[in-house]
Structures are given as C-alpha cells and as structure tokens.
C-alpha cells in the first residue's frame, strides 16, 4: 500500500486542494471532471452521499483517465470494495474504521480515514497509518489543533477538510504537516446542478493561484 499511497499523496501535494464533490446524477460526472482539469486540478473526491457516486466514479475513471478520482464518505469495507471496483484510486472516510483500514491495507488501496481526537489518531497510527483526514477541521479548532496533534505525532501528515475556503486556506496549507486540504468551495453543488461548469473552472483557477502562492512562500 505504501507505494500507492505515496503516489496519491504526491498528487495531492501538487494539487494542494482536493475538491470534495457531491453529484446528483452520473451524467454530471464527466463535465465536472473536465471543468476541474481545465482549472488546473487533476484530483477529485466523489462522495458517497448520493446514489450517483458509484456510476460517477466509473464514468470518470473510464472517460477522463487523466483525472485521479477517489471516493469519499466511505463508511465501511463493503462500500470500499464497490468504490475500488468502480475505479476509485483512493478512499476517504469521515471517521476511523479499523475494519476498513485492514480491508484497504490487504488490497494496497490508499485510505485516508477521518480523525478528530488524539485517541483516534493514536488508533490510526497503531493501525499503520501515517496520513489521515482531519475532519471537520475548522469546527474542531483549525490549524492550532493540527499543530498540537503534530507535536505529539510528528510522523503523521494531515489533510484537513471542513470549513476551509479561499480565505483561510493559507493557515492550513502553510503547516509543514499538512499535505493538502479538502474543500467543496471550488465545486458547489448549486453550480453543478445548474451546469455552470465554466464558473467552476474559474473557481479552480483562482484556487490554484492561491495554492501556488502559498507553496512558493513555504519553499
């Protein structure tokens, strides 16, 4: 799993931002993936919050191969199996399921489980994980909490998600133990529903400019 995980983390680092996507229909998948690519972002997390997720992942994996598509809101091993079969290159969950971790580890499938406390993080570390999602980031205390957790777990890297936007992206992405941020502000559901994919592309371009500025300042 380590080599696959390293490849995905590198993709995340280069993008700086992982769009968190909610799709109502599979037909929205390919136009959205192309809009993100046009905006300079080649990773996306399609969440299992709707019944369209599986078909959407499959369509993107098949029709837009240059997009690294993953599955989000993966709550159990059964959903993980379905997502991987559909073509997901990585999995993200809102919480920590040791059953799911074991399932993904056995299949060398990159998994980023969500943690919210030091106890959950310690359980993740004991399960062999060194990269996790921190969720919901802003509501839990933001960058200060990530810094505090990092002091106790210096080998762990974080992908904060929840309450992050262009206005506070730098406070997270500039932290040395953050490899990317998850966010939905570049692909709001209302814009997907109305088919305003050019607006989504513009939002992605603005986000990418900010990411590049932040990362250049951290270099």
From TrEMBL:
It holds the Pfam family Aldolase. One of its GO terms (molecular function) is lyase activity. It comes from the Bacteria. Keywords: Carbohydrate metabolism, Lyase. The keyword Lyase applies. Pathway: Carbohydrate acid metabolism. The keyword Signal does not apply. Homotrimer. NCBIfam families: eda, PRK05718.1. Belongs to the KHG/KDPG aldolase family. This is 2-dehydro-3-deoxy-phosphogluconate aldolase.
